[in-house]
Amino acid sequence: MLDVAVVTGVGGMGVACARRVGAGRHLVLADFDQTKLDGVAETFVADGFTVSPLRVDVSDRASVDELAAAVGAIGTLRTLVHTAGLSPTQAAADRVLEVDMLGTDHVLAAFLDLVTEGTVAVCIASMAGYMAGFTPDQERAFATVATDDLMGELADVDLGDFGATYTIAKRINHLRVEQAAVTWGQRGGRVVSISPGIISTPMTHQELAEGSGEQMRGMLGISPVPRIGTAEDIAAAVQWLASADASFVSGCDLRVDGGVTAAIRGLMAAG
Description:
Elements: E1 2-8, H1 12-21, E2 26-31, H2 34-46, E3 50-55, H3 61-74, E4 75-82, H4 93-110, E5 120-124, H5 136-144, H6 150-153, H7 162-185, E6 190-196, H8 202-210, H9 213-222, H10 231-241, E7 253-256, H11 260-270
Helix pairs in contact: 1-10, 3-4, 4-7, 5-7, 8-9
């Protein structure tokens, strides 16, 4: 059986991660945008990768199930990197929740049956998740409620603006990854998340121009690491988390944000 690496989302982070985890494996690239997907796949084939481009809508469980079935027919799942998502300026609030929140659940559930000893899933969340103001009771509920009930569980939460919706989705990603690590672990797999900071990708530059640009520039101004992040910063972290060197790491989130979250917490503590 072929070893398979799957990357959902072929934006800047997805492409960088695919180059790190796809060499020597059958690489499955999955995205909602078929035209973009085919173009990226052609580039990878030209660079010597063995690639299958498969369209997926991660907000649709049936679509993700089809993707998982196709992967299972190709070979043995070794690495899954889930980067597919929307930023606040790219979609309405409900769509952000469907893709960013439900999408992660759909992917982790659909691929569970393909997990064998050593399979690793790395889900891209966001440092924004650390800004969510959930109570402990809310966090317990969001961590454990069935996927189909997640949207209903948010009925009593003030979603605020689109940026707040994104923050909520990403915090729930953290909580759901913790829970999925248990079920994946029973089959010998690991699940982790990464929370990028402000990373230089087309999505981020759109946010800087159209969305919360002032707030983001303020975060860069207090960052202990005085630069914007790169997709390669994220890909390097993914490569390590997916490797045998990280075989004792599961059910947790790694912040790759240049220390911005730490700086914000320090300012809040200082009043």
